[in-house]
Amino acid sequence: MNHVEMTKKYIEDNHDLIVKRLTGQYGGLRPSKPNGKRDNGLIKYIWRMARFHAGHDTRLPVMCEYDLLDWIEEQTGDKLSLSERAEVTKAIDPTIDQIIVDLGENPMRGAMRWGRAMGML
Length: 121
Description:
mainly alpha
């Protein structure tokens, strides 16, 4: 099983847990980074990207990929090349959008904010 398949399978098998860990106290996307014992690097990566896509955090999520890479290394012992990282993150994007929708948020809100800031909207 390659890294993309492994990641997709984990998300599929643990979708409800991921949504629960990303849900805030009053619903919606939680404001603070998940740091509990059940929160692995994949959950932390999904949370950070969801915050960015939903427009809650406007800073670019440059460091969150390291949470994802740590999780993959824990699961497989492998260090990913740049092209493998791109494949995995691309495979996770639809899941991030779906989780944002599941939490009652708009997955395009962040893009709209950046579009307005850049004078494109």
